[in-house]
């Protein structure tokens, strides 16, 4: 991960660290590494989303372990210096700054850790489409609904999931959501 951190400019690494702190404080459901990776690539840096996700996991583990052990900024930096000699200087500066500003705010209660293992629904988008024809069938005129879900997994990584449904499947899906909403109204 240290080799890949060298590729990330300081401002993007700082943003990644800030998002990780927000996630650990349960202010956001996760870190959208795909979106951040796309912005880094747009700036001309060659990095893939898998490598960025690994970096996010390492930094998240670092911050959560430091919070659990109640480390001061200097203790964290000293520990980093002893454990990881290949960490670039700009990354250590960002970690020092972010931990100094927000480190004490990380909540590490057992209840919060147990809740985080489930993952969390972030967003849903849908669109209606019609397949007009294909190379094997001249006239389909087949309507379908595409659903795109954003889900934060237990490690805080936000992933996109998508699926298509026929209109009858979508009507059943919608009916089930209405039933859930009705039950939630009674709570």
From TrEMBL:
This is COMM domain-containing protein 6. Pfam families: COMM_domain. Belongs to the COMM domain-containing protein 6 family. Residues 120-187 form the COMM domain. Scaffold protein in the commander complex that is essential for endosomal recycling of transmembrane cargos; the commander complex is composed of the CCC subcomplex and the retriever subcomplex. May modulate activity of cullin-RING E3 ubiquitin ligase (CRL) complexes. Down-regulates activation of NF-kappa-B. Inhibits TNF-induced NFKB1 activation. GO terms for molecular function: NF-kappaB binding.
């Amino acid at each position: 991960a240290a080799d890949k951190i060298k590729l990330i400019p300081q401002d993007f690494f700082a943003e990644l660290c800030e998002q990780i702190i927000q996630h650990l404080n349960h202010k956001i459901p996760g870190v959208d590494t795909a979106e951040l990776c796309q912005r880094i690539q747009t700036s001309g840096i060659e990095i893939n989303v898998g490598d960025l996700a690994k970096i996010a996991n390492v930094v998240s583990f670092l911050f959560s372990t430091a919070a659990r052990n109640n480390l001061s900024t200097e203790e964290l930096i000293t520990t980093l210096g002893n454990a990881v000699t290949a960490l670039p200087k700009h990354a250590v500066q960002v970690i020092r700054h972010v931990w100094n500003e927000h480190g004490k705010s990380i909540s590490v209660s057992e209840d919060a850790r147990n809740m985080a293992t489930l993952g969390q629904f972030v967003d849903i988008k849908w669109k209606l489409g019609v397949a007009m024809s294909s190379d094997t069938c001249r006239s389909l005129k087949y309507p379908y609904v595409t659903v795109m879900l954003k889900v934060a997994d237990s490690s805080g990584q936000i992933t996109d999931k998508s699926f298509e449904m026929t209109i009858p499947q979508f009507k059943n899906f919608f009916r089930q959501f209405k039933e859930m909403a009705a039950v939630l109204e009674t709570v």
